[in-house]
UniProtKB/TrEMBL annotation:
Top-rank lineage group of the source organism: Bacteria
Domain DNA-directed DNA polymerase X: 1-313
Record GO cellular component, one term: cytosol
GO molecular function per UniProt: DNA binding; DNA-directed DNA polymerase activity; phosphoric ester hydrolase activity; zinc ion binding
Keywords per UniProt: DNA replication, DNA synthesis, DNA-directed DNA polymerase, Nucleotidyltransferase, Transferase
Reactions listed under catalytic activity: DNA(n) + a 2'-deoxyribonucleoside 5'-triphosphate = DNA(n+1) + diphosphate
Polymerase/histidinol phosphatase N-terminal domain segment(s): 336-415
Keyword Acetylation: no
Cofactor(s) needed by this chain: Mg(2+)
Protein name stated in the entry: DNA-directed DNA polymerase
Keyword Membrane: no
GO biological process: DNA repair
Length: 572
DNA sequence: GCCGTTTTCGGCCCGACTGTTTTCAGTCG
C-alpha cells in the first residue's frame, strides 16, 4: 500500500471515530498521523521507525505497519463492522458532524443519505433534542442540492477566482488593506476554499458591497467578524471574508494563512510563556493584548525569523526559524526568466514586446525559447527560421544596455528519443531547453530513454516541465522522477520548475529532492503572453514550499555566472 | 491517541456563527 492510500485509510478511521462519538483528540490524532506521513519527505520504504515521527505514536504506528504488511487494518475492520458505511457520506453534508450523525443513527436508525432523507421528510428530525425545524429544512435542502462540503479544486482554477475577487476588493474605498490567506497563500496545489483578510472600519458596508458585486449563490454565514459565501460558479466555491482592524490585521492574516498545524505549534509556544495567541493578537499574562503591524514583527516577538507563508506547514519551520534566517528563495532574488515564446512560434506577442515586458519587470536578462521544428501545431521553427530568429533577437538585445536577451530554444525530444536539431545548430544558441510534447502514452522505459538522451546531449542545459502534467487536467507521462534527478545530477543538466499556474512542474514535493541531489533548478514562466509572466511569483512560492535556497536556482544568478553555466562542458 | 529541559498524567489552539436554546452545543476553520 502506498503512502497516499495509507493516509486515506487513517483519515477514514478518523471519520468512523468521529461518528462513534470518540474523544475529539483521538479523532484528531489519526488525522495528525496522516498529516505527519504526508509531511515526511521519505517514501514508505525509507521510513525505518514510524513512531519516531512526531505525531505518530504506538497505536497509529501499529495501524500503519499493518496497512503496509497486510494491506488492511484490523482497527478499521472492527469499525466497519460496528458502524454502517453509509454514515460516512453524511459527514459530507454541511452542518452535520459526528455528534449529530451519532444521534440520528442511534435515535432514528439513519444509516445513509437515503434514510436521512426519509426521516427528514417524515418530520422526525426536528423532534430530536438539539435539532429543530431549521436544521431539518437545511438537511433536506442539502440533500436536494446534492450539496456537499467543498471538494478540493486545483490552484489554477482558484487563483483565477481569487484574482477576480481581489479586483473587486481593490475597488472598494472602505478597505484599507486586504490579502488572500489560507491554502492559496501557502501555494498549495489543491484547496477547498478561498480566504481573504480585509482591513476595514466598516464591515457592514464591505459585506453589502461584496454581496452586490460578486456572483453569490448562497450566504452561508454573516456576522460582525466574518462573512462566508458560496460563489455562483460551477463548483460553488466557498469564500471566507474576515474583517480586521488596523491593529489586528497582521495577527488575523497570520491566523488565517495557517496552516492549522503551524498555528497550533505557535500557540503552544506562546502558552509555555503564559501568553495566548488568537487572531486578534497576543494576550499577555496580565490580560492586555499585544498587536503587531506585520507578520514579521509577530514572529520576531517570539524570537523567530520570518517564516514565509509557503513554509508554514507545521514541519520543523519553527525550530529552524529560531536558529537563523531560513535562507529560502524570494521573489526579489529572481534576475530573469529563461523560458518564453513569441509570435515566431505559438506566443501572442512579438520578441520585442516580450523582451520589453521582461525588461520592465526589472529583470537583468531573459531568454527567448520558441518551439522547435517538429512541433508543427505550435508553428515550430525550421532551422532557417531559427537562424533568422537568432539575428533578430540579437538586434533587440542591442537596444538595451541594462538587459540581456539570450537566444534559446525549447527543443522537442522526439518519440524515438532523438533531438529536433543537430548539434551544430544547437551550438549557435545561448541556451537549449529540451522537453517532451508528443507520445505521452509511451511506457516508462521509452519516456526515460528520451529524457536520458536529452540530458546526455552536450548542449541541452535544462529539461522543461519534466512530468508534463497539467493541474486538474492530466497526470503527465510515465517519468521516473527519481531516476531523472539522478541522470540530471550525473550530466549537470538543470531541471525546470515551470511556474505556469497550469503546470507547476516539477511539484514542490520533487523539488526538494532535486536540490538535495545537487541538481540546479530554473524557475521559468514558459510565458506565451505578457500576462503569464506574472506566474513567476507562483513559481517562487512553490519553490519556497520545497525549501529551495536561492543559490540553487540558476535564474537568481548574476549574468556572468549564468553565462558560465550556459557554456560549461557537460559531465558524462 | 499523542506528548513532555518543570510533566508518564492531564492536558490537548482558539474563536465565530448558527440554531437551539434561556446559557450553550455543535460545527467549522
Amino acid at each position: 500500500m502506498n503512502k497516499k492510500q495509507i493516509i486515506n485509510q487513517l483519515d477514514t478511521i478518523a471519520l468512523y471515530l468521529e461518528i462513534k462519538g470518540e474523544n475529539s483528540f483521538k479523532v484528531a490524532a489519526y488525522h495528525r498521523a496522516g498529516l505527519a506521513l504526508e509531511n515526511d519527505p521519505r517514501s514508505m520504504a525509507d521510513i525505518d521507525d514510524l513512531s519516531k515521527i512526531k505525531g505518530i505514536g504506538k497505536s497509529t504506528a501499529q495501524v500503519i505497519e499493518e496497512l503496509m504488511t497486510r494491506g488492511e487494518s484490523s482497527v478499521l475492520a472492527a469499525l466497519e463492522k460496528e458502524i454502517p458505511y453509509g454514515l460516512l457520506d453524511l459527514l459530507r453534508l454541511p452542518g452535520l458532524g459526528g455528534k449529530k450523525i451519532g444521534k440520528l443513527y442511534r435515535e432514528l436508525g439513519v444509516t445513509s443519505l437515503d434514510s436521512l432523507r426519509d426521516v427528514c421528510e417524515h418530520g422526525k428530525v426536528h423532534a430530536l433534542a438539539g435539532f429543530g425545524k431549521k436544521t431539518e429544512e437545511h438537511l433536506l435542502q442539502a440533500l436536494n442540492d446534492q450539496q456537499q462540503r467543498p471538494i478540493v479544486l486545483p490552484i489554477p482554477y482558484m487563483l483565477d477566482l481569487s484574482e477576480k475577487i481581489a479586483r473587486v476588493l481593490k475597488s472598494m474605498e472602505s478597505i484599507s488593506r486586504f490579502s488572500h490567506a489560507g491554502s492559496l497563500r501557502r501555494a498549495k496545489e489543491k484547496m477547498k476554499d478561498l480566504d481573504f483578510v480585509i482591513e476595514t472600519t466598516d464591515h457592514e458596508n464591505v459585506s453589502e458591497a461584496l454581496l452586490e458585486k460578486l456572483p453569490i449563490h448562497e450566504i452561508v454565514g454573516r456576522g460582525d467578524a466574518k462573512m462566508t459565501v458560496l460563489l455562483d460558479d460551477p463548483n460553488r466555491v466557498s469564500v471566507d471574508f474576515r474583517f480586521a482592524t488596523v491593529d489586528s490585521y497582521a495577527s488575523m492574516l497570520l491566523h488565517f494563512t495557517g496552516s492549522k498545524e503551524h498555528n497550533v505549534q505557535l500557540r503552544r509556544m506562546a502558552k509555555e510563556r503564559n501568553e495566548k495567541i488568537s487572531e486578534y493578537g497576543v494576550e499577555m499574562e496580565d490580560g492586555t493584548m499585544r498587536t503587531f503591524t506585520t507578520e514579521a514583527e509577530f514572529y520576531r516577538y517570539f524570537g523567530l525569523n520570518f517564516i514565509p507563508p509557503q513554509a508554514r506547514e507545521g514541519k520543523d519551520e519553527l525550530d529552524r526559524a529560531k536558529d537563523g534566517p531560513l535562507n529560502l528563495i524570494q521573489f526579489s532574488d529572481i534576475k530573469g526568466d529563461l523560458h518564453m515564446h513569441s509570435t515566431w512560434s505559438d506566443g501572442s506577442h512579438t520578441i520585442a514586446e516580450m523582451a520589453e515586458a521582461m525588461h520592465a519587470k526589472g529583470y537583468a536578462y531573459a531568454c527567448l525559447t520558441d518551439h522547435s521544428r517538429s512541433l508543427r501545431v505550435a508553428n515550430g521553427l525550421s532551422t532557417e527560421r531559427l537562424l533568422k530568429q537568432i539575428d533578430e533577437a540579437a538586434k533587440i538585445d542591442d537596444q538595451y544596455d541594462d538587459f540581456t536577451l539570450f537566444s534559446g530554444i525549447e527543443m522537442d525530444i522526439l518519440p524515438d528519443g532523438s533531438l529536433d536539431y543537430p548539434d551544430e545548430v544547437l551550438s549557435r544558441l545561448d541556451f537549449v531547453i529540451a522537453s517532451i510534447h508528443s507520445s505521452f502514452s509511451q511506457d516508462q522505459k521509452q519516456i526515460m530513454k528520451r529524457l536520458e538522451n536529452a540530458c546526455r546531449n552536450p548542449y541541452v542545459r535544462l529539461i522543461a516541465h519534466p512530468t508534463g502534467r497539467m493541474l486538474g487536467k492530466r497526470k503527465g507521462y510515465a517519468v521516473d522522477v527519481n531516476r531523472l534527478i539522478q541522470i540530471a545530477a550525473e550530466t549537470g543538466t538543470a531541471l525546470e520548475l515551470n511556474a505556469s499556474r497550469f503546470r507547476l512542474d516539477l511539484s514542490s514535493e520533487w523539488l526538494g529532492k532535486v536540490q538535495d541531489a545537487g541538481v540546479k533548478i530554473a524557475i521559468d514562466t514558459d510565458s506565451h503572453s505578457l500576462k503569464m509572466m506574472d506566474d513567476m511569483k507562483l513559481g517562487v512560492a512553490t519553490a519556497i514550499r520545497a525549501g529551495i535556497k536561492p543559490e540553487n536556482v540558476i535564474n537568481t544568478w548574476p549574468i556572468d555566472r549564468l553565462k558560465q553555466f550556459f557554456n560549461q562542458k557537460k559531465k558524462f
